[in-house]
Design brief:
Layout: H1 3-21, H2 30-43, H3 49-58, H4 60-70, H5 81-98, E1 102-107, H6 113-126, E2 131-137, H7 140-148, E3 150-151, H8 161-167, E4 168-171, E5 176-179, H9 181-184, E6 187-191, E7 203-208, H10 217-230, E8 231-239, H11 248-251, E9 254-257, E10 260-262
Parallel strand pairs: 1-2, 1-7, 2-6, 7-8
Antiparallel strand pairs: 3-5, 4-5, 8-10, 9-10
Helix pairs in contact: 1-3, 3-4, 5-6
Length: 281
């Protein structure tokens, strides 16, 4: 089959998927996304994207498998432990000192390990101080799992023994760890699409880690501008270990450490101000 035919089929697939699910595959790198999808298509026994879409349209289980595959639900507690230690030691104390209530957003939170990691750190630093953690993902089913707060050994491999004792209940029979209710209740989970939904305002810390790796450069640029707008002055964006914000200074960010970008206090202006509105409670 020639490349032009494949491109036409993929364009058809993108158009139909956007109508069916609201997901805009055009915001993802085409070659990488097609390569990933073809492995899923082949496993489904479909010959092309047209056949595969028709399968998704009639088979809810196949559609859910597609959504799980697209949204890359991979996470673990304290991913890149040294950076979470830096978050605890260098970043959050400054935010806590400046604000009466610290507002945190975990964007693309998958099964919840990331926002719960932050909640644990906040409990250790300032358990009595008001703070809010808003955790979002495009995948409603994974958010239901996140709310339950049940994890396997591999998910908690970076959690110290003392934290496991303090913040988890271990089920020997199931070999699972459940996050304590006092931590779960500090996190609000909601469905949110980074590529089309409004952003909250006046955030102090935004974590968006290992979420945008398949996005186009154009989509990334818009996303980072919107994160900038979403932050308060002095607020910090925390990105993933394989990511960096290209053109950060032109957006207005200052790089304060690898993976951490700050919106300056009294300096720097977003390129396109006024677009962000807040869906957060």
């Amino acid at each position: 089959m020639d490349g032009q035919q494949v491109d036409r089929e993929y364009y058809y697939f993108m158009t139909k998927i956007k109508k069916l699910t609201g997901i805009d595959l055009g915001q993802y790198k085409s070659s990488q996304m097609q390569r990933r999808l073809k492995s899923l298509l082949n496993r489904s026994g479909m010959r092309n994207f047209v056949e595969y879409y028709k399968l998704l349209e009639r088979d809810r289980q196949a559609l859910q498998s597609f959504l799980d595959f697209i949204t890359i639900n991979v996470s673990e507690f304290f991913r890149n432990p040294d950076k979470f230690e830096e978050l605890k030691t260098n970043i959050l104390p400054g935010l806590l000192a400046r604000q009466d209530e610290v507002r945190i957003w975990s964007a693309g939170c998958a099964h919840g390990a990331e926002p719960y990691s932050v909640a644990i750190i906040m409990d250790e630093l300032a358990s009595s101080k008001p703070y809010s953690i808003w955790a979002t993902d495009i995948d409603a089913s994974i958010l239901e799992k996140a709310k339950q707060g049940v994890y396997r050994d591999v998910d908690v491999k970076n959690v110290s023994r003392q934290r496991l004792i303090n913040y988890f209940t271990y089920d020997r029979e199931a070999s699972t760890y459940t996050v304590e209710p006092s931590i779960r209740e500090r996190v609000v989970f909601e469905v949110h699409d980074l590529l089309k939904d409004p952003f909250p305002q006046d955030m102090d810390l935004i974590l968006c880690r290992n979420v945008v790796i398949y996005f186009t450069d154009e989509a990334k640029a818009v996303l980072y501008e919107r994160f900038y707008e979403s932050l308060r002055e002095g607020g910090v964006l925390f990105v993933g270990g394989t990511e960096m914000v290209f053109g950060a200074s032109s957006i207005g960010f200052e790089s304060i450490s690898p993976l951490f970008y700050r919106k300056p206090i009294g300096g720097g202006q977003p390129l396109k101000p006024g677009r962000a509105t807040s869906p957060a409670k």
